[in-house]
Amino acid sequence: MPDHFITDLAALEALYGPVAAPSTAKEADHLHPAYARWVAQARFALLATSGEHGPDVSPRGDAGPLVRIVDEHTLLLPERRGNNRIDSLRNVLADPRVSLIFLIPGVGEAVRVRGRAAISVDPELLASFAVDGKAPHCVLRITVDKVFFQCARAILRSRLWHPEEHGREGVPTAGQILAALTDNAIDGAAYDCSLPQRQRDTLY
Asked: For the chain, what is the total number of helices (H) and then of strands (E)?
């Protein structure tokens, strides 16, 4: 029923109550040294962007660290090889605002960064991020606007860092999904068979 929906800020705030003092104190408008130490350890993050077709979230990962910290207001994120959809990059061109959630396996908290991104193709910068002689196509230069940590409740509830509890049974493979979506025009079994080696060969 319509009267079961929250439609204004006052009602929403009344539903949850006041913000606890630590939840406000943890917020910074720059990469505080405590947050810098945390981010420097991260090898994986989720990148949120928004553009003409709406919001998007996609993963980013590297051997570590994932990002390069230039200073307390600037991060560099190399755009490694992917599927060439470039959804995030298209969005950055339309709207530079981005958000990142950095995760570290075994750690319940996550660190969230909000900022504005620009796409750089500076040859020297790209070369500085090369792995095995392969440079990224571009690098996101992210100006930091806000940083804070997320409490561990979501990780604890999901027991994300307990892999023994998360089986693959019933989870479709990439090949099975492609076969289903293309009415078997793509051979899902063949795709799955060749995928691990293809990913190793094209990691960078």
From this structure: 8, 7
